[in-house]
Design brief:
Helix content is about 35%, strand content about 25%. It is α/β, with parallel strands linked by helices. It is globular, with a radius of gyration of 22 Å. The structure holds nicotinamide-adenine-dinucleotide.
Length: about 325
């Protein structure tokens, strides 16, 4: 790439596309090309924000791009990305990469064939709280990880109509578990859930996973009337709790595991620990994600899109297992 500033556009000026556009337009290293959206209301909003607005991805691509962010509804990712693959653009595609593994694998192959960098927008790994936790784990402050538990619950989102709760939001926590544990393969042990409000796809689910011996539970739903986004980890040296939304991280150190002659003597060594807050430099996770993408397009490291495929595979496998169970119970 010869230009000093990278020319980047955003496809889809909806809930998340607007944040990508705002962040990109503020960056001194980016020549923000504008947005593409077939919705006149979205284009009007973009114009009001001072951005060029194109009615189609083809028109945006024709304006000459080095890279683009695809932020259209999940089931439209592949179609929206095709003209950009065709033009040789580097792509940051919102999570999940696609609504099914069949399509997602085709997209990864398409990027490899076109020879373009492809990153999937798993933004939580760029949440400063998760990055602080990753450093804490790497410094062996938690010891061996024994358990990770994630909870991502809240009310039904009006926009999401093309993915179930695991494929739409459960995947975030699968990616975080992969990021924090470095597990090469995460296995599904069991999954349960159902359809409390919707009748065409899962709206609540819990997965039990095995990440290289660490026991993981991920709860995702659209039926809890309050929004919760939290992660807790227990290791042999202590316990951590993360609030993804406030970017706060707490740590309670465990006691050393000294041998004792009797059970009573063993118990006497342990007392309840005190939670202390760890320092975190708070920042918008999306801005960090865009930093990584832009540096990656310039030749730096990018997360392997096969990790994103693995997260989607697990979400899909869990959804299938729940639906099979659900159908069996209904027909019994
Ligand atoms: N990383 C995150 O935390 C996060 C958060 C929200 C959404 N997402 C993902 O981002 C994607 C978009 O979600 P959203 O909530 O912003 O959706 P949205 O419905 O709010 O916005 C999508 C926009 O895309 C536009 N669009 C539709 N077809 C298009 C096309 N062919 N070309 C250009 N624009 C088109 C729509 O008009 C709309 O303005 C989804 O894949 C979703 O899973 C990720």
């Amino acid at each position: 790439m010869k230009r000093a500033k990278m020319r980047i556009g955003v496809v889809g000026y909806g809930a998340i596309g607007r944040h990508h556009a705002r962040n990109l337009a503020q960056r001194p290293d980016v020549d923000f090309a504008g947005i593409a959206d077939p919705s006149p209301a979205a284009r009007e909003a973009a114009t009001a924000a001072g951005f060029r607005a194109f009615a189609s991805v083809e028109a945006l691509a024709a304006s000459g791009l080095d890279a683009a962010v695809v932020a259209v509804p999940t089931s439209l990712h592949e179609r929206a990305a095709e003209p950009l693959f065709e033009s040789g653009c580097a792509l940051l595609i919102e999570k999940p990469l696609a609504q099914s593994m069949t399509v997602a694998k085709r997209m990864v192959r398409r990027a490899e064939h076109a020879g373009v960098p492809l990153m999937v927008g798993y933004v939580e790994r760029y949440n400063p709280a998760v990055e602080a936790l990753r450093d804490f784990i790497a410094g062996d402050r938690l010891g061996e990880l024994v358990n990770i538990s994630a909870r991502r619950v809240g009310a039904l989102p009006p926009r999401v109509k093309d993915a179930d709760v695991l494929v739409d939001i459960g995947v975030h926590d699968i990616d975080v578990v992969a990021f924090l544990t470095g597990a090469r393969r995460i296995h599904l042990v069991a999954a349960r859930g159902g359809m409390a409000l919707l009748d065409d796809r899962l709206d609540h689910a819990t997965m039990l996973l095995d990440a290289a011996g660490c026991v993981v539970t991920i709860e995702a739903n659209w039926i809890t009337p309050v929004k919760v986004r939290e992660l807790t980890l227990t290791g042999t040296k202590g316990y951590c709790r993360v609030d993804y939304m406030t970017q706060d991280v707490w740590f309670a150190p465990g006691r050393s595991f000294a041998p004792a002659a009797t059970y009573e003597a063993l118990v006497a060594q342990y007392a309840e620990g005190t939670l202390m807050q760890l320092p975190v430099v708070k920042r918008e996770p999306l801005a960090r994600e865009l930093d990584v993408f832009i540096k990656g397009v310039r030749g730096g490291p990018l997360p392997d899109p096969h990790i994103a495929l693995a997260s989607l595979r697990l979400a899909e496998e869990a959804s299938r297992a729940i639906m099979a169970n659900f159908s069996a119970e209904r027909s019994a």
